[in-house]
């Protein structure tokens, strides 16, 4: 039990560190306009493997959420065989997750640009694929997510200068 508690503490600390680093990169003084960056990372509930954009509009609270949101920058972890991750406007993919409605709500309230980095793959485990102390296991999602964040933030910084 103590090992699991220690693991959860370390994982929470790592997420906090990443968020602090993201804020520092995005709010640098030489950027023309601050952009708030949000990290969406997790397993199947973050991925929403059974959510499809052609099924959004029948739900009144979500009608229109599948439309392109040009005020929201989006990048996600590439799957095997996909090209390198690159920023683009937020659009509901196949599948999509909570990032779509989150972007619509927060993007409309912020008045400025926001950015979302997503790293989510269903059927993965915290103890195996997401474990920062065993990055060689499984799909290596912990180090892949850190790499995605670093590369995406560097690209965003260079493109905003």
Quick recap:
The chain has one domain (2-160). 38% of the residues lie in helices and 16% in strands. The protein has helices spanning 2-26, 44-47, 99-110, 141-160, and strands spanning 36-42, 69-76, 88-90, 114-120.
Overview of the molecule:
There is one protein chain. The mean pLDDT is 74. This protein has a 4-stranded mixed beta sheet. The protein is α/β, with parallel strands linked by helices and 161 residues long. The protein has one domain (2-160). Helix 1 runs parallel beside helix 4. 38% of the residues lie in helices and 16% in strands. The protein has 4 helices and 4 strands. The radius of gyration is 16 Å and the shape is globular.
Features:
single chain; 161 residues; alpha/beta; four-stranded mixed β-sheet; 16% strand
Class from helix and strand fractions: alpha/beta
Describe the main β-sheet briefly: 4 strands, mixed
Q: Which radius of gyration do the C-alpha atoms yield?
A: 16 Å
Number of helices: 4
Give the overall average pLDDT.
74
Approximate helicity band:
25-40%
Percent of sequence in beta strands: 15-25%
Whole-number count of domains: 1
Distance between the termini: 48 Å
**Poorly predicted spans:** none
Q: How many E strands?
A: 4
Name the shape in a single word.
globular
Strand order of the largest sheet: 1-4-2-3
Element order, helices and strands? HEHEEHEH
List strands and helices in order, with pairings.
Layout: H1 2-26, E1 36-42, H2 44-47, E2 69-76, E3 88-90, H3 99-110, E4 114-120, H4 141-160
Parallel strand pairs: 1-4, 2-4
Antiparallel strand pairs: 2-3
